Amino acid sequence: MNAEPADSEIRPGLVVVLAAGAGTRMKSDLAKVLHPILGRPLLGHVLAAVLDTKPRHVVVVVGHQREQVVEYVNRDFPQVLTAVQDEQNGTGHAVRCALNALAADGIELGDEPVMVVAGDTPLLTPATLTDLVSTHVATHASVTVLTAELDDPFGYGRIVRDDDGGVLAIVEQKDATPEQTQIHEINSGMFAFNPDTLVDALNRLTTDNSQGEEYLTDVLAIARSDGKSVSAHQGEDPDEMHGINNRAQLAAATALLRDRINAEHMLAGVTFVDPATAWIEPGAELAPDALIERNSAVDAGSSVGSGAVIGPDTTLIGTQVGAGAHVLRSHCDGAVIHEHATVGPFTFLRPGTELGERGKVGAFVEVKKSTIGPGSKVPHLSYVGDARIGEGSNIGAATIFANYDGEHKHATVVGDHVRVGSDSILVAPVTIGDGAYTAAGSVITEDVPAGAIGIGRERQVNVEGWVARKHPGTSSADAAASSKSTE
Q1: Judging by DSSP bridges, how do beta strands 167-171 and 453-454 pair with one another?
Q2: Which residues are registered as beta bridge partners of 44?
Q3: Within 13 Å, how many C-alpha atoms sit on residue 72's CB side?
Q4: What pLDDT, on the 0 to 100 scale, is given for residue 34?
Q5: pLDDT in tens, 279-307
Q6: pTM of this prediction?
């Protein structure tokens, strides 16, 4: 499932990801763990962090809207198993479902730690999970809980310690005494267990609590009562432990993740004019000395070269931008923009667009499934579809590549150093040869040979006195009459 770590590396044998909850506070038909945050579902962020710890096995426990969640896991994380919790009878029951699914596949737990994490914590980092497992091993604990200190711990289970600082138990908010609600150290819902301790305690859980559910947190009390060691690892960043339960929390987490990602890029040499309005997805590649202007977004499938300028007001989706290029106020989807090319403003590059080195696609231009060669320009107010434009050519303003006949798309070929006159319509299939011209206002329906000029328009005819006859008494007629009188 992952590259084998060194023998001395500490890693979990199994990670159980809890993703069966209904998430009713999201008020959505979409499963809670599938709500996106910076281009990736909540569950996807968790699984990415989990897999970085190099576990032997990962099981996602699904329940509510399981079909959606299973489809996502199978598509994006095929190495991850899923287990069904038919009835949401608590976190302890969910982990038992995961272990049963593992056993059904003939997979044994082994001796390595079992880690349990929540599927709705998108800010979780691999470093924190690795530290949790390392603390668990270093303290020779049977159970280790990941904790955090919160200014407002309401709603979270509290960590109850003895006089020596040892962990006695975790008490849920609804079961806590008034004194216990004053505790600020909270349970993150994430644990590391010795496999034997976990299996034994799961078989002894009861539903004697306010929720009538099997709490995984009760495993700590059971282990403690058996005389086993229970430890805690307090995470450095409490934000990592925040679960998402409503849209407000989703927005807050998105902003925190944005800030974290942007800070990493800035420390790596990328300039952000306004980090609060730059949205960079995990996986996007930004080279040192790239500049991200305000109100710009770069998705996970995009890359930006050194010295390139993105924005302001630009979106890149699956787009590669070469070094020194500038993309201004544009939407680029599935495009390749080579070195020192310029795009925008108000440009739409659709999938299959390739703009050559030092090429230009200017204001109010749409390009689809077309190659524009090095140094060639489509400066403004044009549509280019299913075309191949050579090197050093210029496409005049308001040129339309008429590629669709109502049933099929056809290709247009424009050679090197061609000059297409403004307001031309190139009716595909058609070829404009190297060094050729088209006259402004032409409709080109036949090939233009190299070095020729294509003229596809009627000769102009002026009808004298037409305005006076057709529109007498108008301002236009008066202006014409005044002009005639001064001749």
Answers
A1: unpaired
A2: none
A3: 21
A4: 97
A5: 999 999 999 999 999 999 999 999 999 99
A6: 0.90
